[in-house]
Design brief:
The complex is a heterodimer.
Chain A: H1 11-16, H2 24-29, H3 31-42, H4 44-61, H5 63-66, E1 92-93, H6 105-109, E2 115-116, H7 127-163, H8 165-180, H9 183-198, H10 203-211, H11 215-228, H12 232-239, H13 244-280, H14 292-297, H15 311-338
Antiparallel strand pairs in A: 1-2
Chain B: H1 2-27, H2 32-35, H3 47-56, H4 63-72, E1 74-75, E2 82-83, E3 93-94, E4 99-100, H5 101-136, H6 141-155, H7 158-172, H8 183-190, H9 201-207, H10 211-248, H11 251-258, H12 263-275, H13 277-300, H14 306-315, H15 319-347, H16 349-353
The chains are: A mainly alpha, B mainly alpha.
């Protein structure tokens, strides 16, 4: 008959069920959020996405080194090499008013002649310069629009969910109204209205994209808050008489915000698509502003000779596609990780 | 079912009110002079005449009064003629189209509708079938191809895709020209013996027995159709696939298999109808997406629909025209959403019972 009295020896026990080490990061994020982050870092597709995104971040940060601007004060103006209409082929020399030579050109190419690496577009705008500085425009517009829509969405969605009842009903009907108009058309119209009033710049398009872009976040955060506000700790806060605003901002939102936050960070890619579409249609920025959609829009006048001037659509198009794909790859992995049926697996 | 539809119908005036208020709010950015294009064709240069128009159409009145006039218009006491009034289809005068906005819509919309029908029908018929196949043969060839296609497809901006299409299929190969129709065909359809039954060109040419015109129209529409619909292909495939996969794992499907039904019956009679529920929702979103998508697609291919007209008007800062299009689109989408919601209740009993 085996020994049944406790011996005090727990080696067997601690060896079989070793306590899982909880890292500092996991403790900070909480188990659910930690699972989301780890899920993203372990999927090959999202790793590819992160690589693409980092590539563009580096280009954006190093833009003044890769393509030095002529005018330090206004680097977003694409430098022009004359005013001739026909695009110049790739590798043709800068004839007039060449910008400073970048540091990497001479060691690699062994020449001190700055060329149009990717050719010029209609009106002799340098395509390479437009793509490099366009990366900054992409991040700038993407970040501004995403942060603004996110904040508006969070505030409206959480107020709607927290108060519920009639308030919720009215707010959600307003959301429905905003969703009734097609996004691009609505943004196009508002940008058209704003352009003569605040001048040609990035802002008409940015304001338009923000005005018609917050509804998704409002809906998501509302759903999350509806489930969280029924939890016991919220009830406890209410019982001890905490103010509404404090319950909302200190107890509910921090616990509900994470999935929306991650989704928002990935929308940076989508925003750039809409923004590029607007500037492709000629809305918003001035001609010659370093923006991918703007560079692509020159091609509209050269449709019948695109076989000769293919470089005016292929390079800026490629930049745009890779940029968006980077965010989409991560986003696709994220959807799998956020799927409630995946909960509990890593 | 009936109570559900009635409840849903009650939403329509509410949405209508919301959309008109939203568009009216955007109109308020314009000066009274600019807004007078809602009522008169030519805005006079003379200051007195301008002031007369502003007085006459109440453009200096309080907001709610202007809103009401904008909805129903002003009836001329002498001639009994109605000026303005969006509820009567008077959306104002288009500076860029040099005609009333409603006329512009009337000539342009059939082209857009023609394009959208040809873009949507194959997606719904073939895309859903492909999605079901991808789910049934999980990780098979169709499934893998669909996955790659949907990631690449959703990352491709429509205008880049469109320009690349033009480069290959028009400039290099010369297969598909942009525009609406060839010159000989446009002469043929302006003849008296060509009856305009539906004002949709492809259907009219078939009804007139002119197969050559039909083919010519399709040849011009091939690239816009593909450009407009590749994103829908990607999303329909993906949603159908995941919904079907989920349904196939349910116990009632196992039951159906256990009682000896053929695999064909299990998939198409038992699993697919339930798997279609999210696809119906998606179809609703697609209509909204397509009506927005025509703006870019039609501009790239120089296709004379409402999207191209809206983009042209916007590029020349013609706000009255673009807002007219927005109103029109808003009306269509309210109806489309209603249809989708009713369909949704038909396929999913849980919706109408809750």
């Amino acid at each position: 008959m085996p020994e049944t009295t406790p011996s005090g020896d727990t080696t067997l026990f601690s060896e079989t069920i070793a306590a899982r080490k909880i890292s500092r990061v996991e403790r900070f994020l909480g188990p659910e959020n930690y699972r989301i982050v780890m899920g993203l870092l372990k999927t090959p597709a999202s790793i590819m996405g992160f690589i693409l995104i980092s590539f563009f971040v580096i280009i954006a940060l190093a833009a003044p080194l890769i393509a030095p601007p002529v005018n330090q004060k206004d680097p977003y103006k694409i430098p022009r090499d004359g005013f001739k209409a026909e695009p110049q082929p790739m590798g043709s020399l800068w004839k007039s008013k060449a910008p400073p030579l970048p540091f990497w050109w001479e060691p690699i190419m062994g020449s001190d002649q700055w060329t149009h690496i990717l050719g010029t577009s209609q009106g002799q705008y340098d395509v390479f310069y437009g793509i490099i500085w366009g990366t900054r425009t992409a991040f700038r517009t993407g970040l501004i629009v995403t942060i603004a829509t996110f904040l508006i969405g969070i505030i409206i969605g959480s107020v709607s969910a927290y108060y519920g009842g009639a308030v919720d009903n009215v707010i959600m009907r307003i959301v429905d109204v905003f969703l009734t108009l097609p996004f691009i058309l609505a943004a196009l119209i508002l940008a058209t209205i704003l352009t003569p009033r605040i001048g040609k710049s990035l802002y008409p398009a940015i304001i338009a994209l923000v005005t018609f872009g917050w509804m998704g976040y409002a809906r998501i955060i509302r759903g999350d808050i509806l489930s969280i506000k029924e939890r016991d700790y919220i009830m406890a806060a209410r019982v001890i008489g905490v103010k509404d605003s404090r319950i909302l901002f200190r107890h509910i939102i921090p616990n509900a915000i994470f999935p929306t936050l991650v989704l928002a960070s990935l929308a940076v890619g989508d925003v750039v698509l809409s923004f590029a579409a607007l500037s492709f249609l000629g809305i918003g920025t001035d001609v010659g502003y370093a923006d991918w959609g703007q560079v692509l829009s020159f091609a509209r006048n050269w449709i019948t000779s695109l076989d000769t001037y293919w470089y005016i659509i292929v390079w800026p198009g490629l930049a745009l596609v890779l940029y968006v794909m980077g965010f989409n790859l991560v986003g696709d992995a994220l959807r799998d990780v956020l799927d409630p049926r995946m909960r509990g697996k890593t | 079912m009936l109570t559900y539809i009635i409840r849903r119908l009650l939403m329509v005036p509410l949405l209508l009110f919301g959309v008109t208020v939203l568009i009216f709010a955007m109109l308020q950015f314009l000066s009274p002079v600019e807004r007078s294009a809602l009522y008169v064709r030519d805005i006079p240069k003379n200051e007195n005449a301008i002031n007369g128009i502003i007085k006459r159409y109440g453009l200096d009145k309080p907001m709610y009064e202007q809103y009401w006039r904008w909805l129903v218009g002003t009836v001329d006491s002498g001639s009994g003629e109605r000026h303005g009034g969006i509820l009567f289809g008077n959306f104002g005068y288009s500076r860029t189209g040099s005609q009333p906005v409603s006329d512009l819509i009337r000539t342009r919309f059939p082209n857009t509708l023609d394009l959208t029908i040809w873009a949507v029908a194959p997606v719904i018929l073939v895309g859903i079938w492909l999605g079901v196949q991808a789910a049934v043969h999980q990780n098979g060839i169709i499934d893998q191809a669909a996955r790659v296609f949907s990631i690449v497809g959703t990352s491709f901006p429509t205008f880049v895709f469109g320009l690349l299409m033009l480069m290959f299929f028009y400039v290099q190969l010369g297969w598909f020209p942009p525009g609406r129709i060839s010159d000989w065909a446009s002469q043929a359809i302006s003849q008296d013996d060509f009856q305009r039954y539906t004002s949709l060109l492809t259907f009219d040419s078939l009804l007139n027995g002119r197969f050559d015109i039909f083919l010519d129209a399709l040849r011009h529409m091939a690239m816009p159709i593909l450009t407009l619909s590749y994103i829908s292909w990607a999303t329909f495939l993906r949603v159908t696939r995941s919904s079907m996969l989920e349904t196939l794992r349910m116990e009632y499907v196992t039951t159906a298999r256990a009682k000896g039904l053929t695999e064909h019956d299990v998939i198409f009679k038992h699993a697919q109808p339930n798997a279609m529920i999210p696809v119906v929702t998606l179809a609703g979103f697609s209509v909204v997406g397509l009506l927005g998508g025509v703006v870019i697609t039609e501009t790239v291919f120089n296709y004379p629909g409402i999207g191209q007209a809206a983009a042209t008007a916007a590029a020349q800062l013609d706000v009255i025209t673009t807002l007219g299009f927005a109103l029109f689109n808003g009306f269509i989408l309210i109806v489309a959403n209603l249809v989708v919601d009713v369909l949704y209740a038909v396929v999913d009993p849980r919706v109408r019972l809750s």
